[in-house]
Design goal:
globular, His_PPase_superfam, Rossmann fold, 35% helix, 6 strands, 207 residues
Length: 207
Amino acid sequence: MSNIILIQHCQSEHHINQMSGGWTDTPLTKIGRQQAELIGTKLREIVKENEYVFYSSDLLRAVQTAEIIGTQLNLKIIKDSGLREINNGIAAGKTKDWARAHRRPRTSSKFDLDYQEFQAGESWRQFYTRVCGCMDRIYQSEMENNLLIVTHGGTLGYILAWWLQFEPEMIEKAYFSSSVGGITVLGKNNFQQNVVHKFNDTSHFDR
């Protein structure tokens, strides 16, 4: 495998209508669709010169981002639920105000890997374990191919941690904060070290 290109999904309705994120399944906004078009244009030259296999989270905001990009790149999408954002349990589909009122109380001011914010949701450790398992599976099945992946902010950060081979306890002290429509590129150097070539590039929105 030569490269993994990660894309955080574009602006979604939950970014502007005070809905919770996680597994809340909202579509892209008009701006989000325009952002996805710009990403496709930026990636066209890169993908034209190399073969890529295209994966996406199966949540609507990621799928719609991927569909717009995939149309420009002539790539079919493989949907994978393992690429979803953290499971926010009973807060999925609820407003941010409702989520704040119904989250479980924190027992520490520090980041707690085993904190499960919402009933029927995931803890951060469970989320990281799920993302690592998903990426191990995809990586093994697509070992000879470049990968293009559309996912979510939290998931993307944990894919970076997986790539850098973080033990779960290491994410207690580190976080990779990406933004809507950002592009991240992973690869290997001549020493076969795992490299982050680019992180959260949003220069395609500067036009």
